[in-house]
What we know:
Blueprint: E1 3-7, H1 12-23, E2 27-32, H2 39-50, E3 56-60, H3 66-79, E4 85-90, H4 112-117, H5 122-145, E5 149-159, H6 171-191, E6 197-203, H7 217-227, H8 236-246, E7 258-261, H9 265-268
Parallel strand pairs: 1-2, 1-4, 2-3, 4-5, 5-6, 6-7
Helix pairs in contact: 1-2, 1-8, 5-6
Amino acid sequence: MSWAVVLGASSGFGEAAARAFAKAGYDIVGIHLDRRVAAAHIAELMTDLQATGQQVRFFNINAAADDRREATLDELSGLCAPQGVGVLLHSLAFGTLTHFVPALAPAPQADASDRAARGVTRKQLEMTLDVMANSLVYWTQGLVGRGLLAEGGRVYAMTSSGSHRVLPHYGPVSAAKAALESHCRQLAVELAPRGITVNAVMAGVTDTPALRKIPGHLDLMDRAQRGNPYGRLTTPQDVASCLVALAAAGTHWLTGNVLHIDGGEDISG
Length: 269
C-alpha cells in the first residue's frame, strides 16, 4: 500500500481522513500548523495512527511557505519511496473572514486603521487564496515532479458551498474555494495522461473547528440539520469513508468533478 499525504491533518476532515486511510492500510504523512497547546492532541493522533501498524510521519509547518514545502517534499522523496504517494488530500482551512469593503457609516471616532480593518486587505486576500487554493497546485507539482504521485494517484481538495454562495464575512474564503475548484478542473485535465485523478469534495455542513470560526455558524448548522434528508449534520467520518472508497482502483474514470458528500443536503436546501 502507498502513502496518503494529508494537508491539514490535525483536525476536522484532515484528521478523520488520516485515521480512515491508515485503517485502510495507507502509510500517513500529516502536514499541519499548530501551536504547542495542540501538542497533546497531535501526539494522541499519531499514537492512534501508529496503532494501525502503518508508518506515520507528521510535519508541523506552514504548508503555504515555499521553503518549508520544498524541504518537506525533498524529505518525502526518501521517506515515501518506493511505494509512492497514492493520495493527496488538501484540507487547509486557514484564511481571513471579513467583509470586502468597510461599513457604510463607520463610527466617527474610528481612525484610518480602524476603517481599513473592516475591509479585507491585499495581504489578507492574497494569503487566503494562497493557503486555501494555490497551495494545492504547488504540492501537486512537487509530488508529481519528484515522481512520488504517479499513475493511480488520487488528489482531493476540500471545497464548500461558499464557492458559489454568499455568506457574511466569507468573501475571501469564498474566492479561495472558487479558485480551488478551478484548480481541480485544470489539474484533472493536465494529469489525466499520467493516470492521476483530481476531484474537489464539497461536504455538507460539518461541525469542525473551521466551521466554528465562521460568524453565524450556529444558524448554518441548524438550517443544515433541519434540511438534510438524514436529519443530521455531515460528520468528518462520513467524508473520510467516502474518500477511502473513491481511492479504489475502479474509480480512475472519475475526475474533474465537485463531489457532494452531504447526505443530500445540497439538493434539499
